[in-house]
Amino acid sequence: MHVKNEIEGTDLAQCMMITSMLLPGVPVTIAGQELGLTDLQEIPWDNTTYPVNEEFDQTNNGVSTKQDVVSQQNNPHSLYSAYKELVEARESPSILHGSLQLHVFNGTSVFAYTRIKSGNPGYLVLFNTGTEEAVVDARQMSGVPDELTVLVTSDVGSMADKTKLMSEAVSLTRRAVAVFRFVPKAKE
């Protein structure tokens, strides 16, 4: 059973899906959510045959102009690619057995958490739930070093995957989430 809600099909729905992927437990993804599919409709069974003797468009099986799975698989910035990257990250000892530190940055709408296990890469998730851009100093969180590597982001225009940035002033656009990989800072 699928229950519709006020965030389905919005940027917040994608952000919540990305945010939940590295939390402890089993993430729940509704069929098609990993592709950004929205507005589920019943299959029109009376109209399921393809026209005979007409040129068949291989893209989207000739029935849709929307982005399909193949185009998302070929796009390193698609939601599908982000989802796949996060599924792979779930195999990391930091996610499987590491600590979880939750944090809300004062004066912002940014929720954050880290997943760290000694001797393994750490993960930082920053989720700006607000309607304004937010800049945070991620070093406020234990174990977060000066440099982070972008793993995935919901806002492709703001930062590119696999790029490095300084953790002292991480900028997140409104209603956006970013996941970073890092070498945890030694405890002082």
List the helices and strands and how they pair.
Layout lengths: L10 H10 L48 H5 L5 H11 L3 H5 L1 E6 L5 E7 L5 E7 L5 E3 L10 E7 L10 E3 L3 E3 L3 E7 L6
Antiparallel strand pairs: 1-2, 2-3, 3-8, 4-7, 5-6, 5-8
Largest beta sheet: strand ordering:
1-2-3-8-5-6
Given as residue ranges, the uncertain stretches (5+ residues, pLDDT < 50) are 1-9
Task: Specify the number of helices.
Answer: 4
Number of domains: 2
CATH C-level name of the largest domain: Mainly Beta
Q: End-to-end distance, in Å?
A: 50 Å
Write down the secondary-structure element order: HHHHEEEEEEEE
Number of strands: 8
Q: What CATH architecture label of the largest domain applies?
A: Sandwich
Rg, rounded, reads: 19 Å
In the CATH hierarchy, the third-tier topology of the largest domain is known as: Immunoglobulin-like
Largest sheet: 6 strands, antiparallel
Nearest-integer average pLDDT: 80
Strand-residue fraction?
A: 15-25%
Structural category is: alpha+beta
Q: CATH H-level name of the largest domain... which superfamily?
A: Golgi alpha-mannosidase II
Any idea what the shape is? globular
Percent helix: 10-25%
GO molecular function: aromatic amino acid transmembrane transporter activity; L-alanine transmembrane transporter activity; L-leucine transmembrane transporter activity
GO cellular component, one term: basolateral plasma membrane
Organism: Graphocephala atropunctata
Protein name: Glycosyl hydrolase family 13 catalytic domain-containing protein
